[in-house]
Each structure stands twice: as structure tokens, then as C-alpha cells.
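Below is how a single chain appears once it has passed through the pipeline. First comes the sequence as given, then the structure the pipeline wrote out for it. We keep one example in the README because the format questions we get most often are answered faster by looking than by reading.
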Amino acid sequence: MISVLILTRNEEINLPACLASVRWSDDIVVLDSFSTDRTVEIAKASGARVIQRTFDNWAAHQNWANENIRFKNAWVYYSDADEIMMPELRDELLSVTQDMCRKQVAYRVRFKNIFMGKWIKHSSLYPTWVLRFFQPDKIRWEREVNPVPVVNGLIGRLTNHFEHYSFNKGISAWFDKHNRYSDGEALEAMKALRSPDVRERGSAVVNECDAVGHRPSVIVSGIDWRGLIAVRDPARRRKALKELAWRLPCRAGLVFVYLYFVRMGFLDGVAGWRYCRMRAMYEYMIDLKILELRRRKKGLPV
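Resulting structure:
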């Protein structure tokens, strides 16, 4: 069987559907950051184990889970509370654990981002590959926000999807969350922009290899140019794209143009138009906070 790890804080709206989609598991662990709503009550009523820990940052929180939670099974599927596992994905996960010939120790999976009752396939940069299924002793995480996996072994890809309902708690909650994310992204951007002209790849992905054994290369001017075309390594490619984007002028506007026109977000209709504008707002929040950090460092008023 497979253990399931769900991270929560005040998720009484999302948690019931998430738990229902993984109730086939014989070991569901809810790592809760001291919720003040009915999250813990709902989790316990479903039969899940509840462990509480104060949230500090995403990488530290997920690393603590891997190192301190005694999972019943060798394989763990990680889920956010606003995600729902599809039956096809469940069946595929179970087949992986039953195949003793597989050499992979972790797997990436795609998801369908749902907004205004529909899958916004184009606006949400589908397919985005995230690492969610793994042997916990073979993985650790780096980066305080949107953490990057460091995997000791081969990584595979799964065919099926989970569904992501990031707007269930409302538009205000989405902006609140991304306001917090933008703090971390601004700090990460400042680190990248301070990087020397030539350096070895950062530790966030230096130990990771994919199923065909690709390895990292040298970064020039703080940008991993080869990473921009690393189709087989989505974590590396996303990191390289961010490092390039942080150096571009009018970045928020360019993000909108890229999502809406280049990635054809207009095919998602009104939902796509609204989502692309919200994503551009998020990127502008990051830009403003980078500016704030720079001005504070120079002793200038904000």
C-alpha cells in the first residue's frame, strides 16, 4: 500500500474532498500547522493520523515530515488539501509499488488547475510536472517557497493527473496566499541576482538526475542556459526560467503576454483572461517586493 501525507492549515473547506479521494490508503497522515477551524476534527473523524507542527517554511516543513514521521509504507504520496486524486492516478500509483523491477525512487505527476468550474489548460502552463510520489528516505527539499526536490536516485513520470482547486476558499484567499508567496519569491530572486558570473549549479538540483541520467552544467551570468531547454528536468527548467525572468524589464506584462498569447490562454475563455491577469498581478507583487528589498538595503525609504 501507499502512505498519504497532507499538509494543512485551516483547510476545513478543502479537506473533506481531499480525504475522500485518498480513503483507499491504509495510512493517511495530516501534518497540521495548528489550525483554528475544524481541520483537525475533520481529519480525525476520517481516521487520519494528525501530527501538528508550527509552519516555518515549505522546505523545512516537508523535510521535517520525511525525517520525523514514521510512515507505515515505503512509498508516500504528498498532497495539498485543495487537491483531489483521480481514481486513474490511484491505480497507477498502486501499480508502481507492485512492480519490483522499477528503478525509480520518485515520480512526477501533472495536474489540472480548476478555475471558475473549468480546467484552464492553457493559462496554467499545462503540463506542469511536480514531484509528489516518492520514497521518503530518498528525497529532501530546498527553497523556502515553491520548494525544489533533491532526489537520490532516478525519477520517473506518471501518466495520470490530480485536480487542483486553488480557488475553493475564494479569490481573497488566493491573493492572501500569493502575497505570502511573493515575499519568499522576492528573497529568492535577490539571492539569484547576487550570484557570481560563473558558478557551479546550486545545490537545489545538483544531486538530481532523471530517468535518462541527465546531469547539471555550468551557470553563466547567474542563468542556467542549458536548463532553459531541459525538457526532461522540469524543476531545473522552471528554476532557469525564473532566473532569466527576474532579469527582464516589464516582467509582469511579459508574463501576461506569454500566458495569454504565446501559451494561448485565450482558448480558456473568460476564465483564462481573468487567470492570466491575476498571475500578472502576482508577478508584479514580486517585482515591487524586490524593489523594496533593494531600497531598504540602500537605506532608502519605501
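The chain has two domains: 3-164, 171-297.

See the next section for the split statistics.
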